[in-house]
Amino acid sequence: MRAKISYVITAAVLVFYFVLVGSRGVMLIQAGTAVTVTFGVAVLILPVIGLWFLWKNTRFVRRANALATELDAEGGLPVDELRRTPGGRIDRDSADEVFARRKAETEAAPDDWRSWFRLAVAYHDARDTPRARKAMQRAIALHDGRTIEA
Predict the structure, then answer these.
(1) Quick one: DSSP state of residue 33?
(2) C-alpha closest to that of 126 among 108, 100, 88
(3) In this predicted model, what pLDDT tens digit does every residue of 67-89 receive, in sequence order?
(4) Which of 49, 57, 109, 143 is deepest in the core (most CB within 10 A)?
């Protein structure tokens, strides 16, 4: 729940920032000189890119959470079996062991979104965020009946 609250607060701050920057871009364009119009258009591009990025991430998170909810209802969420260091961090060897099992599970059932979801969790636990995201994108695509390139 804390993560959701943090995400909503961060998104709200970003939207406020984008509106503020966008208004400055509009003010520059309204000044009417060639230089200010050029800068105004350039400044407006930043909020557009930011809003697109925020929208894509929010959509991804909502879809991943929907898969987690569905998998939880089926009783298929991965169990946290990872060993922890005294400081509470995940033990790297433990994460690697679980990752190897999840990878084998996914190779055995490459068209099952559930195995890709669990592989994404294993990648995340192994601190490989880019691959975790790609695996989750694959799980979402398979769940939706789409295919994506490897």
Answers:
(1) S
(2) 100
(3) 999 999 998 888 787 878 888 78
(4) 143
HEC assignment per residue over 58-117? HHHHHHHHHHHHHHHHHCCCCCCCCCECCCCCECHHHHHHHHHHHHHHHHHCCCCHHHHH
Tens-place pLDDT, residues 17-57: 999 999 999 999 999 899 999 999 999 998 999 999 999 99
Instruction: Give CA–CA dist 16/18, Å, rounded.
Output: 5
Q: Which amino acid is at 45?
A: I
Handedness of CA 26, 27, 30, 33 (dihedral sign): negative
CB 54 within 8 A of CB 14: yes
pTM (predicted TM-score): 0.77
**Residue 64: pLDDT over 60:** yes
CA distance 91 to 89: 6
Q: Is the pLDDT of residue 108 over 90?
A: yes
Contact 75, 88 (CB under 8 A): no
Q: Which residues contact 51 (CB under 8 A, 6 or more apart)?
A: 15, 18
Do 133 and 119 contact (CB within 8 A), yes or no? no
